[in-house]
Amino acid sequence: MPYDDSGWRNFGRLGANRSPENVRGGQALGAAMEEALSRQIREGGIRSPVTTNRGLNARLNYLDSDAGRQAMADAGIDVTPRTMKKWFDGTQQPLPANKEKIDTAYWNLRTERFLNNLGAFKQHLNNRGRGTSIEIHPINQDLVDEPARRRNLMGEQAHRFLPNVRYIWDDAVDAMREGDSEKLEEIWDDVIADLDSDWGAYTYVSYVGLGA
Predict the structure, then answer these.
(1) Quick one: pLDDT at residue 4?
(2) Three-class SS of residue 135?
(3) Region Disordered: what ranges (predicted)?
(4) What is the pLDDT of residues 27-37, one digit of tens each?
(5) Would you say 30 and 119 are in contact if contact means Cβ atoms under 8 Å apart?
(6) What is the DSSP string of 31-69?
(7) In whole angstroms, what is the distance from residue 37 CA to residue 40 CA?
(8) Sequence spans of domains, the chain
(9) How many CA atoms lie within 13 A of 157 on its CB side?
(10) pTM listed for this prediction
(11) pLDDT digits (tens, 9 = 90+) for 155-198
(12) With the C-alpha atoms ordered 196, 200, 206, 209, is the resulting torsion angle positive or negative?
């Protein structure tokens, strides 16, 4: 597993690619941003279950629009306009099966709106100029040939933590949305450049997590 300043050019020759979690850093960064986005969608959503009056009414209020009615139809809700009006008015309770579909429609529409406007996610990661922390785990060397294992990438001390990563997030979110793996790799190179002289050892990683 030769090392040089541009990364591990011969990655996998000695077994590092036998562990499926070992991936390019840009790929891991993209996955971490998708996880953070999913978390933001979930944690900022309606917390009360749809089985409660509060949770049901909150979802119906969110869905009370043309886009919301379309989301409900896409979720498989097939009732008359009169019945749906009663739901929105609060004069009739949906059946349990339809409550589940209302819940699905709510989350689908919320997710769609987030994905169509990622400005809020960029703001979230930029964190008013303070940036977002990044946790980096080195490659898993369990399946690497024993003589080729790098001692400096073993143990908890090999996990790296960057507390305030700034200036990359607008471009990174755009690259994630567009599926631009080359751009994500360029951004990842900028991230690990802030590490010490062994930065190239983190060209491939087993995990990247965001503090967002």
Answers:
(1) 39
(2) strand
(3) 1-23
(4) 999 999 999 99
(5) no
(6) HHHHHHHHHHHHHTS--S-TTSHHHHHHHHHHH-SHHHH
(7) 5
(8) 16-40+121-210, 44-117
(9) 4
(10) 0.81
(11) 555 788 999 999 999 999 999 999 999 999 999 999 999 887 67
(12) positive
